[in-house]
Specification:
Blueprint lengths: L5 H10 L4 H21 L8 E7 L7 E2 L1 H10 L5 H13 L6 E2 L13 H23 L8 E5 L9 H9 L6 E5 L6 H15 L4 E7 L12 H9 L4 E7 L10 E10 L4 H4 L2 E5 L5 E5 L3 H20 L2 H16 L18 E4 L4 H11 L3 H14 L6 H11 L8 E8 L3 E9 L26
Parallel strand pairs: 4-5, 4-6, 11-12
Antiparallel strand pairs: 1-7, 1-8, 2-3, 6-7, 8-13, 9-10, 12-13
Helix pairs in contact: 3-4, 4-8, 5-6, 13-14
């Protein structure tokens, strides 16, 4: 349609003695048409901006010490001394502190475990986080065009996304999605889904809400593989507001560079490593198998192999490739697998707070310093394993510490049932000043880091 070059067009207009004013008008129209085609091109990639996010901080009356937690378990009358002692030992080694939070219904004597309380818990968490992120961004609820909620262990009817639509009276044509059963890495799956929707729906805001339900996930049996989840998971959630509006680039905190998702569910031992099921007494719980660490290792290896192509310096990619060739070529020789130095690609690491054992293994595998692991360890210590929202508690920690500078790259990485390992890479669009950016860590950030062994 526009095969003629500008030079040819000028020559033709001169040859036919077209008035200069008409030539300029024709050229102007041509430029306008080209701009419209570029803007309206459906295949054109749109930037996904993170305006802001908010993590839910439960009411102080939900604070739960380790002794309080064990006393509530004992009050059910369902746990023999052996099971209570086992959970006490797990708590002591978990990396959790004395100020994590449990839903009010579970702090009653005896705990009130029921669907009504479970729904009440999740609604309070979601609404608390959403109210905060809307306040921070000054975006009105009716402006939101996409909503994605994720929670593994509570799948109500109507869905959790409908719960949000109802509470905020969102518009009739909103695109709403609810993800369930996808584990602790579902928060990044939700981000990926929102990103894909923002790529095809221009001028939109997407709200992502990540949480887990503690009441609905409580286990009252005595299978030790299922008792682990009782000890690690705590109340929490996060709301993240994304935008594809170019005008939001100036006021957003970050933009999304990469999402890399890895799923090892085709392998039975990975698939079965985290499983909700009934025990021998028909009591439902989430079982964590002995294969969970090896499953995480396999998923991590596959994930970083893909991610490295996008983020690592060329020299690190070359070292990794040469090591891979050497190990395949000289199978009789013991050649250690080379792990690329991801500290060259990222300034900050937000590693899912699965538990102290997971954190220790990640630090060893990625050769990270205590400083790099601090957001993850302190989030586990202060708030416990908040499942899919934990990576946001960690980013909030980095902001409260004044660590986020313009241009910094942040790696969020999470593991979840399936078995999955998912990564999100963000780039800071501005320096975050903790004096002006308040979050749930603000009033107590000077207390951290602290000794997590106590």
């Amino acid at each position: 349609m526009f095969s003629n070059s500008p030079t040819t067009l000028i020559q033709e207009t001169s040859h036919h003695n077209i008035p200069l004013s008409l030539w300029w008008l024709t050229t102007f129209h041509l430029i306008i048409i080209i701009i419209i085609i570029i803007i309206m091109n459906p295949k054109r990639r749109r930037h996904v901006y993170l305006l802001d996010f908010a993590c839910y901080k439960p009411n102080p009356k939900c604070m739960c010490t380790k002794d309080m937690f064990l006393e509530c378990l004992k009050s059910t009358g369902r746990f023999p001394d052996e099971s209570l002692d086992f959970q006490r030992k797990i708590l002591d080694k978990s990396g959790l502190g004395q100020r994590t939070h449990m839903p009010e219904a579970l702090l009653e004597i005896p705990p009130n475990i029921c669907l009504a309380e479970a729904a009440k818990e999740t609604e309070s968490v979601m609404v608390g986080a959403i109210d905060e992120v809307l306040r921070k961004t000054k975006v009105k609820a009716e402006e939101i065009g996409i909503i994605v909620t994720n929670c593994s262990l509570l799948n109500t009817t109507p869905s959790l996304s409908s719960m949000v639509v109802n509470h905020y009276r969102l518009k009739d044509d909103i695109l709403s999605y609810n993800l369930s059963g996808m584990g602790c890495s579902a928060g990044l799956v939700a981000i990926d889904l929102a990103k894909r929707l923002l790529q095809v729906h221009p001028n939109s805001y997407a709200l992502v809400i990540s949480t887990e339900n503690i009441n609905g996930g409580s286990y009252t049996g005595n299978n030790r593989s299922m008792l682990l989840s009782n000890c690690l998971f705590r109340m929490g959630g996060a709301a993240v507001l994304l935008s594809n509006l170019n005008s939001d680039s100036n006021r957003s905190k970050y933009y999304l560079k990469h999402i890399v998702r890895t799923h090892k569910g085709s392998q039975d031992y990975c698939y079965n490593s985290v499983m909700q099921k009934e025990d021998d007494d028909n009591i439902t719980g989430v079982a964590l198998s002995k294969d969970i660490m090896s499953s995480a290792g396999q998923a991590l290896k596959a994930n970083i192999s893909t991610l490295g192509i996008y983020v690592l310096p060329r020299m690190e990619q070359l070292k990794f490739l040469l090591n891979l060739i050497a190990r395949k070529s000289f199978k009789k020789m013991v050649i250690k697998c080379y792990t690329p130095d991801f500290k060259l690609a990222f300034e900050h690491f937000c590693i899912h707070t699965g538990g102290k054992a997971v954190q220790d293994e990640m630090q060893k595998t990625l050769e990270l310093s205590d400083w790099h692991m601090e957001p993850s360890r302190m989030s586990l210590y202060r708030y416990g394993n908040t499942s899919s929202s934990s990576v946001w508690y960690e980013l909030a920690y980095c902001e409260a510490k004044g660590r986020i500078k313009k241009g910094n790259r942040i790696w969020q990485i999470a593991f979840g049932s399936g078995f999955k390992c998912n990564s999100a890479v963000w780039c800071a669009l501005r320096t975050i000043d903790p004096k002006h950016e308040k979050n749930l860590w603000t009033n107590e950030i000077n207390e951290f880091p602290t000794d997590t062994e106590n």
